[in-house]
Amino acid sequence: MSHSIRGKTAIVGMGVAGVGEAPGYSAMELLGLSVHSALSDAGLKLRDIDAVFAATSSHAFASMSVTEYLGLKPKYFDSTNVGGSSFEMHLLQASLALDAELCDVALICYGSNQRTAGGRLVSMSEPQWHETSYAPRHPITAYALATSRHMHQYGTTREMLADVAVSARHWANLNPDAFARGPLTRDDVLSMRMVSDPLTAGDCCLVTDGAAACILVRSDRARDFPKKPVYFLGAAGANWHRSIQAMPDLTVTAASESGPRAFEMAGLARSEVDLVMLYDAFTINTILFLEDLGFCPKGEGGHFVQDGRIAPGGELAVNTNGGGLSCVHPGMYGMFLIAEGVAQIRGEAGERQLKTADVALLHGNGGTLSSQVTAFLGSEVVL
């Protein structure tokens, strides 16, 4: 049975800015541009926003920083930061606040100039005291550890991992806004520089700039806005550890808990999902999450992603924007899962547009396979 919050709120504005490289802009300036884009999309003004949900890689008190920069006076605000999954959690938090009538127009936003400011893949998941003697390079070392264990336990191969990157690139080649476009083969990925064995540079996400923002209102107002509403259907989070060495099983993420609860909350079955947007910071993520969310049995994710199954024309549409591997990854990627879900459900995805896009599963990942949040967006058809 679905939860009472199902369908009670909707995204009515979506905006992105600075995707790829945006020299000369600060992280907050990019965030501000995306907010103005979302407001324009919704036909709203800054003064209409009365709730702010924000997390960034560069602001300790993100919602306060956003509020000050934009000149807002929100009556509800939240800076929950659980890494890249923060924004899927914000969808739930904003929906709960709206449904309780604690606010009327909620903003969720993120911005980063990571590429032009530094150009390095960095993580807020710094090594914990019990890891420092091994000199890990997080987050890459942590994901390489999980990859190695999955390979050992289930026979997953580097070729299977490479196929994840190749499928993502095929989708990116249909997306004019994707940062990395052009030919990419399995051999290309395998022959790239080894970053942290067994992950090559091709197994790792991009380092880009980028910002995104969305506007939510209660569903009873949703049809009053210019664009097709995209309804919130449900979400659930799970968090089992902070440090990778404390992960109970390196081959099982907390998505195995967040997924079933989110499906139940949304009142959906896997067969009803048209689009799967996974936080693919590394190629192993896609394999782990497909398993843990129940799209294939544990250990079979590597086989599942082969033969173009998750590429354009395959049986499961996964990361249709090109993902963090080929589209955009400005430090925290979760807002861009939302952006692609909205684009597909609205029918605004251009050459990559799915024939049917009424239900989108968004799965955010934070830290070193730490926080996992699964959320669902849908069209009016599924209400």
TrEMBL record:
Question: Which keywords appear in this protein's UniProt record, sorted alphabetically?
Answer: Transferase
Any GO molecular function: acetyl-CoA C-acyltransferase activity
Q: Origin, by domain of life?
A: Bacteria
Q: What is the lineage of its organism?
A: Bacteria, Pseudomonadati, Pseudomonadota, Alphaproteobacteria, Sphingomonadales
- Source species, please? Stakelama pacifica
Q: What is this protein called?
A: Acetyl-CoA acetyltransferase
**Record domain Thiolase C-terminal: where:** 237-378
Q: Which InterPro entries match?
A: Thiolase, Thiolase-like, Thiolase_C_2
